[in-house]
Amino acid sequence: MLKKKQLVDFWRVYKQRKTAVFGLAVVLVFCVVLILAPQIAPYDPHLKVGAVYETPSWAHLLGTNDVGYDILSELIFAGRISVMIGLIAAGAAMLLGTVIGLVSGFLGRVVDEVLMRITDMIIALPRLPLMIVMAAYLGPGMWTIVLVYSAVGWPSIARQVRSQVLSVREFTFVEASKAIGGGNIHIMASHILPNVMGIIIANAVLEIVFAILTESGLSFLGLGDPTHASWGVMLHFAQIQGAFFRGIWWWIVSPGLCIVLISSAFYFIGTALNDLFGLKLGKR
Amino acid sequence: MPGSPIDLLAGGGTLTVEAKEAMIRRFGLDAPLWEQLWKYIVGIFRGDLGVSFAYFPTPVWDVVMEALPWTLLILWTAALLQVTIGYVAGVTAGWKAGTRTDSILQTTGIVLVATPTFWLAMVFLYVFAFQLGWFPLGGGSSIGATYSSTLGYVGDIAKHAALPIAAMVIGRYGVFQLILRNTMVTTLKEQYILTAEAKGLSENRIKYRHAARNSLLPMITFLALSSSIIISGSVYVETVFSYPGLGYLTYASVLSRDYPVLQGAFLMFTAVVIAANFVVDILYMYLDPRIRY
Amino acid sequence: MSLLTVENLRTYYFTEKGSVKAVDGVSFSVEKGESLGIAGESGCGKSTVAFSIMRLIKGGRIVGGRITLDGTPLLNMPIRDFRRIRWERISLVSQAAMGALNPVYRIGDQIVEAITTHTKSKKREAWDRAEELLRQVGVDPSRAKNYPHELSGGMRQRAMIAMALALSPELVIADEPTTALDMVTQAQVLKLTRGLQEELNVSIIFISHDLSILGQACDRIIIMYAGKIMEMGDVQALFREPQHPYTKALLSSFPDIKSTKRTLTGLPGSPPDLIDPPSGCRFHPRCSQAQSICKVEEPTTIEVLPKHYVACHQVKGAS
Questions:
Q1: Which residues of B touch C147 (CB under 8 A)?
Q2: How much is the ipTM here?
Q3: Which of B185, B184, B267, B276 is nearest to B228 (CA)?
Q4: What topology is assigned to A16-37+59-282 in CATH?
Q5: Chain C residues touching residue B191 (CB < 8 angstroms)
Q6: What is the pLDDT of residues C249-274, one digit of tens each?
Q7: For chain A, how long is the longest CA-to-CA vector?
Q8: Mean pLDDT score, C25-35
Q9: Residue B199 and residue C88: Cβ atoms within 8 Å?
């Protein structure tokens, strides 16, 4: 399906956007660092390796937190959690939303009506408060976050996918396929999906951004898993321990900057993809 | 439910079994779940949202109502500012699409949107309130203060609301900018822009009265969805600044397992969103003559 | 002196793949009160010529040539001054499909905007004038209060014409004004245009790919192909005795209700790539009369009959 020449062409145009390249570079760097966390982090993040609230020094580049853990090590390992949850939550929401959008757009009529009503109802509710309420009932934790994010996030994805499906559906080659006698699933998979795939991928990347931001937000509010600290959880503890009032600003700035960096990186990539794929679709 | 509210109400101490059962009956927690839900829904229509666990026996309605005005204040002010700044930035970026101005505006907007609002709030709190002391450290108004005049009161409220609003605005205006910029780029390709230019109109006139005006329409549609985004911002910001609005109430009630209040706050947020959508619909009808009748 | 002269105009568009030489050395003039048609296939550069005159080229630039209006050079004029020329002396009528009128403002307001931008009129006066203009083009003045989507295609086109005449310009450029209309409305609009032109003594540049329309609406006609002028002359003469092979091919692809039945011959091939146009005469790849010289050397424009110009090696000049 993907030819080498297409990839080369694609890269040529992609390269032109400096922010997109920067984003890709940042993501790659993060990937390397996070995968190699055990090798790169100076200490075990769950071990008391110093006094509490030590200021940054050569031994502890970012100092220690309220229980004596090395913040830098915590930061690196937290990155794994943040990014992982972000990817999984985004993936779950995209999967759910895409399937529902495809089905709704393609099957139409009653199925479409019902699904769209449900979608409208969920979209009408305020996102964060809804997630908070659900998480409160489910109890804090990583899976809770994944669950509430996908439960609240799938409708807008479904809507987008559905509208893409509706516009592609009208293309004549789909009519032709039907005339030849292609079954529904066959049409969905081999004609519709490839065309909407581009937009789906672009949106998936943007979804990762929101997932990471949401996870950090929910964790900050205390709904994350304290034993598996993500950046958001780190910030939660920093806030509770009054880090600012103790003047320990690096505890707060470092996780925050990491979030900003990786989110911007993904965002740049996502917008670039959006422009590129949007163009391709427009050319038809 | 995790952390049974009964235990919390009992203040963590031990209750006799009879006392616990009495409390369970008192709160109707012994009834089957669907019956509880039905009673709750009926209660909503009568304005009865139950009784707060944490502020027992204050009715949830009162608790929520006291928080509502605070949230509305920062919500609407922030929304207005976000839309205005996003509008100007988006129109400028779209008009100059492809140039350095566009890149700078876009990059700034994206990086700010990628910034967690609560973190931005924390940074603001640290820099402007803690270090520089220009603004108070939190709350909605100064505790126990007496005011010599209404102006004094208003000024105090404003000083407390300033940082929360600033955090919300700077953290989220980018969303509007990004949408508007893309819409502008599409609009600028329309024929009537060429006509406008052929008519010898000035650049500003074409930019705002023709291009931006038409780009507004898709953005207004987006506004409806965006009330959700703006509310999220207020929840985070209120938490960080201990600002006594619905957002802070939400956070506090999660901590104290005050489920009735949590639900009450959620319902109130939903009401705000519905009201906002309604306003947006009317605004859209006013702005787009094509769908008037 | 001619009202408008265009000398050796060259306008290129700049794309990733290279520069598109959309108009590559076009020269002609328009006299006061005359109606000049520009004909050709899509992409031949006729609209580009129009937009070049109004300096509205997007994604490209006028790279060479001179344009003068009543002797005044237009291309180097600062844009601030040129804005006064726009609409006051030269105006534009486009295809009035939904696109050319702003959908969120009333027709009257859009006409008023043109008037108040250029003159010191008050809104009240301008509105009255707008209503008067609508009446002149055969639209009920009360429709000024309507939005574009509330008018039919024909009425929108007339409204555009009314707007174009608001400041009594000397030249009106009509870019495919009848293309989106049905035959009956087309005829009405054409009649209106002719009538107005004669009444107001306005010069018109009429751009269309439809030769039959141009035959009715114009005094003189230019045939363009691939950014260059192939033939130019009095419309009746040109239609009766076309000189250029391309003109002949174009005319033979239009049915004529009055003539005897014949097979329509189209033109084989497709318009050339203007980033890398054919050498010599740009028409040679599709020309039935092409010779070796046509592939190598660009033909110069010669006056083969009085006021009838052709650019073709195969046409012998008047002796």
A1: 289-290
A2: 0.84
A3: B276
A4: MetI-like fold (1.10.3720)
A5: 94-95, 97, 99-100
A6: 888 777 666 666 666 666 777 888 88
A7: 75
A8: 91
A9: no
